[in-house]
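Help! Submission page says 'invalid entity' but I think these are all valid:
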Amino acid sequence: MADGTDQKSSNQMWGGRFASGPSAIMEEINASIGFDKKLYAQDIRGSMAHATMLAEKGIISQEDKEKIVHGLNTILSEIEAGTFEFSRKLEDIHMNIEARLATLIGTAAGRLHTARSRNDQVALDFRLWVKEELQKTEGMLTALIAAFLDRAEENADTVMPGFTHLQTAQPVTFGHHCMAYVEMFGRDRARVRHAIEHLDESPIGAAALAGTGYPIDRHMTAKALGFREPTRNSIDTVSDRDFALEFLSIASICATHLSRLAEEIVIWSTPQFGFIRLSDAFSTGSSIMPQKKNPDAAELVRAKTGRINGSLVALLTVMKGLPLAYSKDMQEDKEQVFDAAESLELAIAAMTGMIRDLEVRKDRMRAAAGSGYSTATDLADWLVREAGLPFRDAHHVTGNAVALAEKKGCDLADLSLEDLQAIHPAITSGVFDVLSVEASVASRTSFGGTAPSEVKKQIAWWRGRN
Ligand code: ARG
């Protein structure tokens, strides 16, 4: 709750027309400094570029610009040293910095806000922050992809059951399964790269919403701040938060991928599946059941998806129906993005660690691959290829063989030739070549298929793409 009511003094930045200050509740609901202080470095960088441009264009003197830049550098060190005093009365990071600048350099500080508004200032700061976060995410996804490529390489011919409906479907290789995640996270990384390109326009100079009459040079500030070009419409510029929504959409899709992987890790590490063992570094014990090793990190990654998706929905809802141009509603953009970014970073890092460390239990995967009649499709394909049956008939004959194996409590490969010939006389001993899971996997050589030779090609393709 607010720290008492102070209605005596009006805001020193905008209080000219106000006789008294805000109520404590007003101050509390209005202030964003509690979270937007995170933008201090971007705010200072933006102000330096703006002041430099103002001086370059003769709008402020070189002398004032020198003072401003010097003061801003002092403030940067103060914030980084933890000695800067943030004040809620000064609302946000922009006014906290400007007020301190005034204390440090006097009247020259008042010239910094020429041809600028907090509306384009916050759009700039936040865009710079999101751009950096996207660049960080790109690097983290590359590390996750690299971890998967290594595991895929080691397991290009490790046979495991492939599933649909989480029921054994056909044998695949663990390398192939790993490469499915490489595809997913590769798409996430492509989305990140596209979003960086998309947001690469500088908002500064849009001013409050209408642009400005001062002879500013927006191309100069855009270049100084590392943007491709300035934005084209000043009204859109101060009301646009697409870059934040795009970040959250990408984060949500990526978190959804991570949650699917997390779910598989949870399932695979159960004693019933036993496909993998998680390292001690990425699991926890139970305080009551000494035998337990829990996949907490995977479970939390799965759960972070809820937060991240929630942030996307929250910001979409904030932006929905907002009239142009800036409305204070938009101040609610930052916490959602900051929280989602922190959650996503943690989730990707935890997953990268788990994938790097996990022990693959090839024997367990191999044993499970052979159960559940996983080579039934191979038998049907053999009947088509070698005995000339139409696929539908072959499917039916195979169904009979599965029913017999089920009755006998054995695998398809354990049925005798006599048993099989009783089901269909065209079957010969050659059929046993395709009933093993290794033969099944090796035969799937279609582009993108599970054959070790294909998986190795996919790995090589991705290795060449970082
Ligand atoms: N703290 C504000 C925000 O985050 C800065 C912009 C304020 N602009 C204004 N016209 N009150 O959106």
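Support: the input was valid. A stray whitespace character was the problem, and the output above is from the cleaned input. The first helix runs from residue 24 to 30.
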